[in-house]
Specification:
about 110 residues, alpha/beta, Uridine Diphospho-n-acetylenolpyruvylglucosamine Reductase, domain 2, 4-stranded mixed β-sheet, 4 strands, extended
Amino acid sequence: MVAGTLSTLTSIIAPATATIVAAPTAPARPTAEPIFPPELKTRRPASLYLPGPYSAWYRPTSLQQLLALKAAHPDAKLVGGNTEVGIEMKFKAAKYPHLVAATHVPELTQVG
């Protein structure tokens, strides 16, 4: 069992601070093959915490962080795409004060 307080969890999953800069656009060349940006191939996703008025959204990047969040918030809803949760919240008036996206936990995204 992983123990920790909420302040420990928020220090584990710190709010992301980034500046978005628009890239210059090049004219379209219909004969050219689109190239995936090489810098995105080496990008490492960061843990994320987004507080909101009704729900807090967490995105852990390790199994240890996920277990610590679930221990601190046993009622947290694990999300993997948010399709059914969005429907439940919008049309069925379901309340989820803590949403945890397990999409960036390597142990949960590997086969075998």
